Amino acid sequence: MIRCPWCINDNEYKRYHDEEWGVPQHDSEKLFEALVLDGAQAGLSWISILRRRENYRKAFDGMNPEIIAGYGEKDIERLLNDDGIIRNRKKIEAAIGNARAYMDMKEQGHDFSAWLWEWVDGKQIVNHYASVKEIPPHTPLSKQISKILTKRGFAFVGPTIVYAFLQAAGFVNDHLTSCFRHGLIAGA
Predict the structure, then answer these.
(1) Can you tell me the distance from the alpha carbon of 163 to that of 143, in angstroms, rounded to the nearest whole number?
(2) Paired residues of 126 in beta bridges
(3) Domain boundaries of the chain, sorted by first residue
(4) Which homologous superfamily does the CATH classification assign to the domain defined by 5-186?
(5) What residues form DSSP beta bridges with 172?
(6) 110 C-beta neighbours (distance < 10 Å), count
């Protein structure tokens, strides 16, 4: 079975690649979680976050944006002392700020999932890359979304982070054409 080469040396990575990465996600709270975790990844490898994902869910009340939006300084201190997550104050504060921005959007009548899917006209962008070297770190689309998310109060949402998020959450299919998942997801 041929897979994208970035996952072949780790069983947890293989499972994530085979079952989650690139699969179109339409649940707003799961999309919120994915965006927060991609922001936590900044400067790190994705596997370092993937291995801590359950710890993040426990530490951040199931990644519930409504609860996280109410966090204060005591919660920040608690999270800074939690060795199950990346203990970076700016990333923790960004997760809280992102929950507040998410809730602001919700209060303004914007469903996060629907808002994001509008950027791609409701359909996954299917790319046809033969090599990892062909995949860009960001695109004009990720730059646009990054700019708007930042204006809405989100943090750790630069164009590269947003592109990684778009790939992971299935807005973009960047499985290599030789990967068994490429055609399966493109046909979903």
Answers:
(1) 8
(2) 173
(3) 5-186
(4) Hypothetical protein; domain 2 (1.10.340.30)
(5) 125
(6) 16
pLDDT tens track for 68-121: 999 999 999 999 999 999 999 999 999 999 999 999 999 999 999 999 999 999
Q: How far, in Å, CA of 54 to CA of 151, rounded?
A: 30
Tokens 């370092």 identify what position?
48
CB atoms inside a 10 Å sphere around CB 142: 25
Of 15, 12, 149, 20, nearest in space to 1 by CA: 15
Question: What pLDDT score does 187 carry?
Answer: 64
Q: 45 to each of 37, 49, 61, how far by Cα in Å?
A: 11, 7, 24
Query: Cα separation of 113 and 167, whole Å?
Result: 15
